[in-house]
Amino acid sequence: MKSKKGMSPVQAAKIRAKKGIAETKLQRLRVKKGMSQYELSVASGMPTRRIQYYEQQAGTINGARLEALCRLSIALDCKLEDILESNSLIEKLRMTK
Question: Taking the mean position of all CA atoms in its chain, how far away is CA 47?
Fold first, then answer.
């Protein structure tokens, strides 16, 4: 059995609380799917550090390239709007055909 890399969701929650960092939609969805950051990295083909960057809000996911958003959405089996943080961007996305 292959072990997961990284910390548990409980450990991550404690660190976020200590640093005053809110949980992102990406992080919530990843944890709900039972994936570690490393597993999402493998499934999406994106570097683990980039996923950490988005989850720690060091770089907002709203400014991510469309290709990155698509990779994450496919790996998490969700809609783009499920991982975006900006309500105005979500509304713009919904206006597209």
Answer: 12
Between CA 94 and CA 10 the distance in angstroms is: 34
Which residues lie below 8 Å from residue 87, measured CB to CB, with a gap of 6+? none
Q: How far apart are CA 86 and CA 83, in angstroms?
A: 9
Among the listed residues 94, 74, 84, 89, the one whose alpha carbon sits nearest the alpha carbon of residue 33: 74
- Which secondary structure element, helix H or strand E, spans residue 32, and what is its range? helix 25-32
Global pTM value? 0.80
Q: Encode the chain (97 residues) as per-residue pLDDT tens digits.
A: 444 566 676 777 777 778 777 889 999 999 999 999 999 999 999 999 999 999 887 678 999 999 999 999 999 999 999 999 999 999 999 999 7
DSSP-derived letter for residue 45 is: T
Strands (E) in the chain, as ranges, are none
Distance (Å, whole) CA 45 – CA 23: 23
